[in-house]
Amino acid sequence: MTKAREIMTPGAECIGADASVLQAAQKMTELGVGALPICGTDNKLKGMLTDRDIVVKVLGAGKDPSTSHVGEFAQGKTVTIGVDDDEVAILRTMAKHKVRRLPVIEGHDLVGIVAQADVARAIPDPAVGDLLEALSTD
Predict the structure, then answer these.
(1) Is the pLDDT reported for residue 23 higher than 90?
(2) Which residues in the chain belong to E strands, given as ranges?
(3) Residue 20, beta-bridge partner list
(4) What is the pLDDT of residues 88-129, one digit of tens each?
(5) Do 101 and 116 touch, CB atoms closer than 8 A?
(6) How far apart are the first and last CA of the chain?
């Protein structure tokens, strides 16, 4: 079975909980990603911020992205997977929690992200993953 460590995108970059939403949006643009893990001052994972969160919960709610802090969106327990979880566990977790991206942890450390396209590429037909990835990028 394929493990998360084999299909994840390694080296996920966190955004600090005290950063502004504007800074997060700029970092997403720079990295070409649609989500960032939120880390606290203790460097522990606090949540995920998505481009959709920015549009709906900040802009759509009339908030100022330069004064809204990323930490406001780190609510509840973050859904993660372990580095040695297999694709069945990954798919089950994504489906159960209705998320397209999962932070991958080893112990308490964030080591990568598994996205829906990563999983699709890793299981039988890589063309499906390529299509999903193409549709997910600008």
Answers:
(1) yes
(2) 9-10, 15-16, 35-39, 45-50, 81-82, 101-106, 109-115
(3) 69
(4) 788 888 888 878 889 999 988 899 999 888 887 777 665 455
(5) yes
(6) 32
Cα gap 2→29, rounded to integer Å:
30
CATH of the domain at 85: 3.10.580.10
Domain range for 42: 4-136
Rounded Cα distance, 105 and 80, in Å: 7
Q: Where are the alpha helices (DSSP H) in 43-114?
A: 51-53, 87-97
CA distance 110 to 89: 18
Tell me: the pLDDT tens digits for 53-77?
999 999 999 999 999 999 988 766 8
Tell me which residue has tokens 């798919």.
Answer: 91
DSSP label at residue 28: H
Q: How many domains does the chain have?
A: 1
Residue with tokens 């720079």: 30
Token match 């193409």: residue? 134
pLDDT for res 16: 93
Beta bridge partners of 23: none
Q: Taking CA 56 as the corner, what is the angle to CA 52 and CA 58, rounded to the nearest 5 degrees? A: 105
- pTM (whole model) above 0.85: no
